[in-house]
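Can anyone check this?
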Amino acid sequence: MTTTWRMRFELSDSPGALARVTIRLAAADCNVLALHVIPVPGGVLDEIVVRAGEGVLPADLVEAVRSEGGKCVGITSADMRDLVDEPTAVLRAAKTALSDPDMTAEALRQVLAADSVTYGEAAEGQVQVGDMVVRRGWTRFTQVELARAQALLDLVEAPAPAVRGMLSDDGVALVLRPGAPSDEDAVAALHTRCSMRTMFNRYHSGLRTVPRRWLHRLLNPPRGTTILAQCADQVVALGQLIHTGTPDCAEVSLLVEDAWQRRGVGTAVLAALASDARAAGYAELVAWCLPSETALVRAATRAGLDVTTRREDGLLRVSIAPRGRALKTPIATVAAEKTR
């Protein structure tokens, strides 16, 4: 069994230094699949994609580089997309973002090989690129990479958090948009219009109304995002994406008003959440449903997302891969007005 790794390191400026590294890697039963040279102030960084033989650990690869004087070593898992040269990768990402502005954050994540790309203000350990916050733990960003990322945003004129327009199955126009503190009353009204069964399926308790103190956390989850579906002046559905604390995994939940169920609204909200999850670097979305409740599974399947289920602790654990097939429900994306 082989594993592919992406490594980045700085070598001393001496003849044959890179050749000696590759010889050491070859001796460790490794095959160098790609090589990129990245200019940085005062020199260059070397980046290679390596396929390691069975039993060769990342620490072994790092040691091979360091034994030849390499420093600033970063390593992360890689896939076949990392074998594409940088100009080709950027052009493909630009095409993706131009075709669907809602995919801009995901395109930027691919270009930067970032752990996550989200909207907002950068905190410690993060980097601001336009309206987006990028994070990468395995190695620091170079100025060349950040300039390339800004050029991509300039090309597609990336919007603030997207407002998406959609049509329900019966042709009614709705808007999908991020939640805001000003939506507390509308979200409270959404809950009062939901039946006891809908509320129980969402919260797994006999909750009839939502306590006022919950509304702020529903609209501003500290480790996630909230998307609302709105028709005219009413919020008719709410979806949340919450980081679970497990790497690459987030919990997803939906609440759709009874009158709007089975009309494609939940499918569209879930597809929008999956798009945000891809941009944030999540590989899995998890939802907890009652064993008899199949609405979320149906919505995920209709959205073109791969779904698996299993019984766990009396509930149905639904696992959704956010990198699914093409969405079957039409959604148009328009630029949101920036409100800073």
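Reply from J.R.: I decoded it. The radius of gyration is 23 Å.
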